[in-house]
Every structure is written in C-alpha cells, then in structure tokens.
Backbone:
C-alpha cells in the first residue's frame, strides 16, 4: 500500500487548499487518478497540489469547482485561490482587477515599467523573476502574477473590447527589462497594440518636466454605467477610489496629460526608432 502523506492544513494557506481538496475527493471515494481523469490532468498533478508541492491555478480551481458543484458559490475553490493569490499582491489590486474586467474604458499611466496589459509574456517573466531573486515574492507567486497578466490581457480579446488609453512615461521605453531581445519584442508589441482600433497609446516625454500631471502610476476605469473608479499605488500599497469628488479631478488631470503627451503617430514613430536602435 502506498504511503499517504499526512497533511497539515495549518501550515499555510496553500496547504489548507490541498488538504481541503483531498478531504472532498476522499469523501466521494475517488482515487487521485480517477479524480484527475475527471478534470483532465494526471494523478501526480493532483497529488502535488494536495500535498502543497505545486500551487493550484485558476483553471484548475474552476475545473474542480465544476466537479464538486461549487462554481460561483462562497465556498468555491476559485474564491479560495483568489485569496491565496492576494498574498503576493498589493492591497487593493485584486479589487481593481475585478472592476477592470467590467470596464468600458481603461485609462493607464505608468512610470518606469510597461503596464501589465501591454506586457509580452517574456517581459512579464523577466520582471517577476527579478522579484524572486530579490526575495520579495516566491517562485510560485511570480508565476501566478504572470498568469494574472495574461488573464487580464485575454479579457480584452472580446467582441466588444473596452477602449484602452495608455500614457507611458518615456522612462518605460528606456528601462531595459530582460535584455535587448525582450525589449525589442516588447516595443514591437506596443506598435501592434497601437494599430488596433480600441487602443490609444501616448508617450509622456521627459521634456514635460514639472508639467507631468502624475508622478505615480494611475489607472482610471469608466464602467458601463459611466461611473469612474481610480486605482493608484505606492511601493507599499494600492488603493481603489470610488468617490466621485476625488476621482473626477484625476480624470481631468489625465486628459491634460494626454494633451501634453506625444500624439499616437509620434509615439509609434519613437517606439519604432527605439526598436530599430535609431533614436
């Protein structure tokens, strides 16, 4: 008889997730291999998640919710997975992502780094693996962050995608993340996005100086009811703001910054020059 590892759900949130999965599976009399066949993976993969050797993914959580009849309930594994993931995110960001998925218009301003909605997988991977090397997140948390970036981008590939307005500080284009090849591919990706009918990309040049309206990243979402939600973050925390009297001035400042920035044609020309190494 195979040795069954005793689980300690109090060891970590990830251990609690795995222990709960095993308890529910065994209560139904299913072996790991049988359960795995129901959700399209291997018994070894189920074992690794139950014992905490491997983190669950959003897709995995949704599949087991379907099998257990927990989809869209307060006790769903997807809900538990999202709580797990929040441990590697700034406060307020998971709430912002929920609003972002329902937005009619998305406005972004970013300093130093390309916004997540525009990142190539290679750029996102290089960025997040640098956090692992510094010890600020685990490898598993970095992989979840990368998965979230791709998930957020996939939401834009709908029949009626939101309008996306992105103002990037010139520093975003010059920050060499991942090396020359990664940056070339990232700049090419930005050119491709600028060619889409729902994307409007502008560079805020260094020459703006003190006239740059924001000095920290700012996201503004216009929801389908025309209400506006703002999200801003510092190095230590993020904050979602829904109070109209506070959000409207930020929206006004954003429009002023957009007017002061390079036009989309000038922006694409600059990106193309940087990609070809001719700027």
Residues:
């Amino acid at each position: 008889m195979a040795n069954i590892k005793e689980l300690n759900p109090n060891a970590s949130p990830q251990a609690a997730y795995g222990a709960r999965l095993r308890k529910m599976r065994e209560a139904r009399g299913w072996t790991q291999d049988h359960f795995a066949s129901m959700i399209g993976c291997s018994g070894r993969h189920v074992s690794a998640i139950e014992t905490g050797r491997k983190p669950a993914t959003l897709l995995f959580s949704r599949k087991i919710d379907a099998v257990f009849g927990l989809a869209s309930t307060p006790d769903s594994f997807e809900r538990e997975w999202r709580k797990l993931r929040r441990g590697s995110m700034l406060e307020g960001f998971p709430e912002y992502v929920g609003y972002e998925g329902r937005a009619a218009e998305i406005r972004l301003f970013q300093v130093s780094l390309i916004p997540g909605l525009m990142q190539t997988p290679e750029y996102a991977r290089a960025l997040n693996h640098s956090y692992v090397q510094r010890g600020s997140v685990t490898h598993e948390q970095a992989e979840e962050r990368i998965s979230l970036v791709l998930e957020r981008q996939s939401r834009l590939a709908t029949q009626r995608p939101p309008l996306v307005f992105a103002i990037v500080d010139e520093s975003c284009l010059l920050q060499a993340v991942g090396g020359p090849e990664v940056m070339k591919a990232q700049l090419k990706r930005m050119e491709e996005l600028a060619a889409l009918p729902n994307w409007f990309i502008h560079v805020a040049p260094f020459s703006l100086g003190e006239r740059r309206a924001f000095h920290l990243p700012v996201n503004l979402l216009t929801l389908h009811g025309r209400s506006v939600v703002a999200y801003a973050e510092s190095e230590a925390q993020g904050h979602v703001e829904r109070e109209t009297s506070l959000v409207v001035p930020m929206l006004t400042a954003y429009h002023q910054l957009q007017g002061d920035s390079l036009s989309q044609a000038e922006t694409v020309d600059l990106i193309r020059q940087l990609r070809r190494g001719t700027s």
